Amino acid sequence: MLAEIKIENVAVIEKAEVSFTPGLNVLTGETGAGKSILIDSINAILGNRTSRELVRSGAQKARIWATFEHLPAKTRELVERCGYGVSDDLLLYREIGADGKGSCRVNGMPATASVVRDISSGLLTIHGQHDSTSLTNPSTHLGLLDQYAQNGELYEAYHKLYRELVTAKRALDALTSSEAEKQRRIAELTEEIDAIDSAALSPGEEDALMDRRSVIVHAQGILDGLTAAHQALSGDEDGDSAGAADLLGGAAGDLANSARLDESLAPLSDRLNELYYGARELATELADRLDAYDFDPGELNQIEERLDQIYRIKQRYGASVEELLARRDKGAEELEGYQSSGKRIAELTQRKQELYRSAKEAAEQLTQSRLKAFTQMNKQMREALEFLNMPGVRMALRHQRGPLASAGQDSVEFLISTNPGEEPKPLAKIASGGELSRIMLAFKSALADKDAIPTVIYDEIDTGVSGLAAGRIGQKLKQTAQGHQVLCITHTPQIAAFADQQLLIQKNVRGDRTYTEIHPLDLDGRVQVLARMISGDKVTELSLANARELIEKSQC
Q1: Contact predicate 521/20, CB 8 Å
Q2: Would you call 395 helix, strand, or coil by DSSP?
Q3: Is 133 left (phi over 0), alpha (psi -120 to 50) or beta?
Q4: Three-class secondary structure of residue 125 per DSSP
Q5: CB neighbour class for 394 (10 Å; exposed up to 12, middle 13-18, buried from 19)
Q6: Tell me: the pLDDT tens digits for 263-277?
Q7: pLDDT score for 398
Q8: Which terminus of the chain is more exposed, N or C, with fewer CB under 10 A?
């Protein structure tokens, strides 16, 4: 349950610290005193979306702390799973900066707002005035019925099958959606693959051909250079002139003779010998290359034709040779997929039929759980509404089975007859504002017996209700508070009288600033506040007596 909330610099609340008790906690105060700010603060501490407009004017940041005690087992598991350490209490912290930045903490450790929402989802629920109005929207009725039915496992089992069915249907539709488009694509892929295959492309071939073409084009120049180099080293064929190698050999012999007479010349002699042998070896290699240098006159034409073929296919598809080969492999894979699609279509068709049968069975189980739940809920609702001064109310369920959808096969709407002899009709056409408030309270009290959420907040659930009906709402809230902690914001003295703890939200002006304060009331304070709620500004002895009597009767 919510044990305590501390607020700093939230709107008109400069600083407030409120402790809540088990049972029914009632918050009262004048319109505009700041009751909605307390609800906004609780929403913020639960990790819900908030705004920097919540920060008090002139303050740098707003801060909110909340302590929860006696945590449900599910919440304890979530806290432990998120790594925040488990204890008997849970401390949540929310900071909202005037610059729009903010932060959250769980048990003193940093957390994201989404983590806080997950952890706190099983701690507290808020029912505002708009919830009653939402009853007139039939789209909300299935959710309410499922909450009462507690059929989460059945729903998950169905929804899993439904998602698989949708996936299979989409895959099947994709394969069968356009046979003409499929055939066009097959022809396109076949033509492309045949063209690339006929070109017999290979990686690196184009570069090798261009290098070879360059050699052939410059063949004569290459031969002239080789011949000149060879003659320079070996001399001419007639022997009229010596080559560099022969000259180096003679020089090496002369220097060797000198080195025998002067040993200091030996290193120079060795170096000259190396030059001589190197020149001879190089001359031999040049001779071999000259002998091997043979050019086919038709080779250049062949190379040009092959390069032109490669150029044309590159231009056609706008890609390099390597990219074309990769494109060919990808196209072949896609083509194989199309060619095997007949088998895949048969498999998916069978899979879809099997999933549909299974999903239909699961949907029917979900339907039966809802119909059974409505029978039980209707009985409980009639008893609650009769207690809330709406005797003779009859509820009915307009139910239709339709195509399978994400929530099952059911379309439901709650119908109601508030007067004997009238046929049940949609809530929007029958119920007044006050009746909607009581119907919603009956719903919520029925749901409270089903869920394990320890704290329930009712924000002006008594809208449009007064007199005996208001008193009955107070009694119903008191009953609900026996199993849950209930916080109720009300303007109605008949409801406030049933409080186990009453808190006064009061707005004061000091200087040029507005301050909202929250005070727990003792018995005398409660009598004064209830008397003011009964008679307005002029509190009389009679209104005080009426207030005291309301409190005394509520405790019986």
Answers
A1: no
A2: strand
A3: alpha
A4: strand
A5: middle
A6: 888 888 888 888 888
A7: 92
A8: C
